[in-house]
């Protein structure tokens, strides 16, 4: 396991202090997932020329708000004047898009690339920086993930990060549609921006 020493002053504290703040927010299972996402993000970051400290922080905080009650998100959407369309969705969408706002205020992390990686880790986005792509894929591929096609997804992503993003965007949309689940418009935009482009 890689344990970075933070030097870039992105989070006002040590990695251990950040971990303590996160473990206060999450039940043990979710917390262990977060640690695995950090490690997978570090591997993908090294391969793709992405800053390791940013990958570590983004990986650790991506699910910071996952176990907050709905009322916290609804209050935040109103207080921070976020798109009221968000009120029609739920935790799956809120913990990233709205979670980033809670992270800013509670953890004092203001790096927009990191915050966008949190915002877009579930839905993806039309444009994603290499860091955002790393976190999006690390969440999908961390070692405990076990879904049909995960090995193929890991292979594809090891070869080319963008092709991995397209794979996930396609399969996530497919899953939502097949199960009659709501599709947040951004997920559809992500599909359109990434999937046809990577089709051979
Ligand atoms: Fe998440
Ligand atoms: Fe996650």
TrEMBL record:
The record's listing under InterPro entries reads: Diverse_Catalytic_Enzymes, HD/PDEase_dom, HD_domain, YqeK
Please give one Gene Ontology molecular function term for this protein. Answer: bis(5'-nucleosyl)-tetraphosphatase (symmetrical) activity
Q: Which UniProt keywords apply?
A: Hydrolase, Iron, Metal-binding, Nucleotide-binding
Look up the EC number in the record and give it: 3.6.1.41
Q: Where is the HD domain?
A: 30-144
Q: Which reaction does it catalyse?
A: P(1),P(4)-bis(5'-adenosyl) tetraphosphate + H2O = 2 ADP + 2 H(+)
Q: Which Pfam families match?
A: HD
Tell me the protein's name. Answer: bis(5'-nucleosyl)-tetraphosphatase (symmetrical)
| Species this chain originates from | Levilactobacillus fuyuanensis
């Amino acid at each position: 396991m890689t344990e970075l020493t933070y030097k870039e002053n992105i989070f006002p504290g040590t990695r251990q202090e950040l971990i303590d703040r996160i473990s206060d927010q999450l039940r043990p299972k979710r917390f262990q997932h977060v640690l695995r996402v950090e490690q997978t993000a570090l591997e993908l970051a090294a391969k793709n020329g992405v800053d390791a400290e940013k990958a570590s922080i983004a990986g650790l905080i991506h699910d910071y708000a996952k176990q907050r009650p709905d009322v916290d998100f609804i209050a935040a959407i109103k207080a921070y004047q976020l798109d009221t369309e968000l009120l029609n969705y739920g935790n799956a969408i809120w913990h990233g898009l709205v979670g980033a706002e809670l992270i800013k205020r509670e953890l004092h992390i203001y790096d927009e690339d990191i915050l966008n990686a949190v915002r877009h880790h579930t839905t993806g986005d039309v444009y994603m920086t290499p860091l955002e792509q790393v976190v999006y894929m690390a969440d999908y591929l961390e070692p405990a993930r076990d879904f049909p096609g995960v090995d193929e997804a890991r292979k594809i992503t090891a070869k080319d990060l963008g092709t991995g993003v397209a794979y996930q965007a396609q399969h996530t949309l497919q899953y939502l549609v097949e199960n009659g689940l709501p599709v947040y418009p951004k997920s559809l935009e992500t599909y359109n921006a990434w999937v046809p482009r990577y089709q051979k």
